[in-house]
Structures are given as structure tokens and as C-alpha cells.
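Q: What structure does this chain adopt?
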Amino acid sequence: MTAMNPRRGVPPLGLLLLVASPVLGLVALVPFSLGVTHLRRDYRLAHDGATVEGRVDRLEAFEYSTSPAGGGGPFSSRRGTETGIRVHYTFRAANDVAYQGTATPTSQLVKGLSVGGPVSVRYVRSDPDISELESRPLTGYLFTAIGTVCLAIVLGVFVAGFRLVGLGAGRGFSECTATVTELEDAEYIVNSERDIRVRFQFSDAAGNDHWGKGPPLPPSEARAHAVGSRVRILYNPRDPSTTRWLE
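A:
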């Protein structure tokens, strides 16, 4: 039989899930927001974009950690790190105003660039501050997909926590009086004393007999319920094997 009471001193699982859900939700929003931002940016570049010739102002090398050694492109062979190239460029928009931008393109594009040399730039006509050297439409979809999956998992965690909390509060349960049938040693030892479980027998609304057991209790509290004494419990009418200890 399954007793619904949690281990004494340990927060109920449902409550832990509910508390964790907002934190996990904030974490999941990071890739989702990045994905939506990328998709909006790509859409504007595709539908309100213009391509002009710009100039490479500076090529900046930077390192970042990675698990395997880098392969191909502007990457070093040092194991555990990769070296990328950040391109700083300038271009003039249709309003004849000079704009600057930075990008980290693929190795194929970097190989053909040199400081002071030309580079093809695509920018948003209505907002030239948004520009790119090459299109990477999959980035937005990837981040959005990851964020969506994470948010779905968080929603599942929240729903599970809500259901467990509701179950722990006795929602949908029926109260009845049970008879203590046995006191057995529990698997927990607290302050050098082994906890005790109270086993009991009860009848549901239809008069059918069922058996269950309470949560681990301190010996002094458990022995207050002698064999044959009466205790109050909750049970699930749809599954009487699921019980909740009230005393």
C-alpha cells in the first residue's frame, strides 16, 4: 500500500516541483528569447534588406572553450579551445550615413577577407544598425526549438507539482477511521533511533477492506498508537491503496 505522507522533515515533492518551476522557466526563456530575436532579425533582413559593399576595418581573434579540439575554419588546433575571428566592418546605407557592425562569419568567408578590403553587407533599410555578413537562418529556429522544448518540460514539471500538491492536500480523498494492525520498523534512523511505521486496516464506502501504512514516525509517537487502536486516515476512492495519514 502506498502512503502519501512524505518523509518527516523533507519538503513534499510537489512543493519542490512548484518552487523549481519558475526558476526553470526563466532558464528556458533564455534560448527561447534568443531564438525569437534571431527569427525577427532574419525576417527583417529577408523582407526589408538591401545588400551593399562595405569595408573590413579590423579582424579580431578571440578564444573560447570547447570540449573537443576544433576542426576546420579559423580555428586553432589547441585541444579544449577554439579561436574564432570577429570581423569589424563599415558600410554606407541608402541615406549615405556610415554604419559599423561586427560579425563572426564562417571560415570560408573569413579566408577571403583582409583589413581594408571589401565585404558584402546586408542591412535592414528601415534600421541600418541591423546588418550581417552572411545569413544563418537555422540559428533562430534552433534556439526557438530548444526553448520550446525546455518550456514544455517546465510546464510538465509545474503540472506534476500542482497535481502532487493537490493530492497531498487530500483533494478528492475520503476520510475514514482505520484500525492499527501492526507497528513495524521503518528504513530511517533519526538521532540513533529507528523510525516506526503504523500499519492499519480500513473499509471503503462500499464496505470493502483495505490495508495501508503510515509514514515513518518517531518511536514515541508511533507507539502511542497501540495495535487495535483507531486512527484517522484519508484514502483515494478510485484507488484505495493510496492513503494519507492524518494522525
